[in-house]
Each structure stands twice: as C-alpha cells, then as structure tokens.
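Weekly modeling sync, notes
Attendees: S.R. (lead), two postdocs, one rotation student

Agenda item 3: backlog of single-chain predictions. S.R. asked that every request posted to the team notebook include the full sequence so nobody has to chase files. The rotation student volunteered to paste the first one in as an example of the format we agreed on. Action items at the bottom.

Example entry:
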Amino acid sequence: MTAPTRLRAADAAVVVGGSTGIGRGVADAWAARGIETHVFSRSRPAGPGADRLVWHRLDFRDADAAKEALRSGMPDRLGLVCYSAVYFTAKREPFLEADETDWLDQFDVNVHGLASTLRTTLPLLRATAPGLFLHISSEVVYNAGPNRAGYAASKAAAGSLVQSVSQETDPREVRFVQALPAGMVDTPGIRARRPQDFDYSGYMAPAAFAPLAAELARTRGAAEQGEALVVHPDGSWSSVGDGTPVSQSRPLATSPR
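Predicted structure, as returned to the notebook:
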C-alpha cells in the first residue's frame, strides 16, 4: 500500500469554481488547514472565510482571457487542484427547445474549462509529486435523465476526460479523484432556479465536502486514486462502485390516455 503523503507547507491549492457551492466547501476546508488557497471564479468569494482565499477572476465563456487568468494566477508551488466550475441552464427543458448558446456554454465551462485547467496545472502538480487533482462530478454521469441533455452530456464528457488523463498519468506524479454529492446541494445556483418559498431542509450543504477535502489534503489521495466517490450529507463518502447514486431527474409527466 502507498504510504500517505502529507501536504508540504509551501505547496498551495487551487479551486476553479470555488467562490460558492461545493467548490467553496473544498476551498474553505483547505484554507482552514493553513494552505494558501487560490480561487478562480466569475464572482469574488464572500462571507465567513473569504478573507483566507486568494481570488482571481475567470470566466470560461471567454476562452482566451480564461487561459491567461489561469496562466498568470497560478502559485509557484501547487500541490492540490479542485475543478468545481459548472454551468447549467436556468431551467430544465427538452433538447429541441434548449437554447444553443446555453448548450455551448455548458461545454465551454464543464468540459473545455476542465481541459484548460488540466493543461495548466498538471505540469505544476508533477513538480510537487505526488500532486492531487479533484474533479467535482455529478450523478447525472451515471443516470442521465430527461430535460438535462446538455448537462448530462457535458458532465459525462468531463468524467471521461478525467478518467482518460488519469490512465495516462503515473500516480506517483499526480493522483486523480472524482467526487459527487449523494443528493441536491443548497447553492446559489440552485436557489436561482427555485421559488422563494422553497424548502431546502432536505438538501446537502457544501460543507459536507470538507471532510473529504481535508483527507485528500492530508494524503493526496493515496487510497482514493482513480476513484469516483459519493459524498453523503453527514460528510462521509463511499465509492460509486458500491452503489450508483440516486437520480435527481424528474420523470416526464404523462398525459392520460
């Protein structure tokens, strides 16, 4: 068994899409361990703990500017990377009714942004071997579902991209882990799609990802290399191989015959 590798104090962390949601949960967990944590996102992190994060503005819908932001904003020594940037439409709708701009934006952020981040960070992670790359995945990779074609297709492509790059990479240099929530997560993006009086009591909190993030910082994924992990509301996690996550798709309404 590979021995755990403790994060060296000089090695920094990067969270792409870390101003809110799951990415923020990861960023806060890493910063709380005293790790210099850089967040690349469209909006500036706010609220408790934001002062511990180094923010860089980035929007993958402007590909050239995004690549430059990644290139110029990277810390000198990089040990941990999390890709949590995500784009989904304002509402679920059938494929033929989906706006083409929304379709392209989903791929620009969910797939092409991930690819740009991998290209930028992998050489830096190799330099502090073993580096860790954490990708925030989704149950839709395993379940698909109606009225979610763009999101399902782009997240499935992203998951396969990480799997492929992982198989190309010596785990002594960089380890790859994918993680996804067991249920819906209470995030600003989700709240923008719900009515004002919606009850979020059954939703997960982004902080549920903090225990996994802390463990990955401690070991750099020594035991989780190549795994896809389902994170549960209590902060525990399990392998996707132990059970497919529950689908969050809503079945289509059927007309009475």
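Discussion: group reviewed the output briefly. DSSP finds seven helices and eight strands in the chain.
Action items: rotation student to repeat for the remaining queue; S.R. to check formatting next week.
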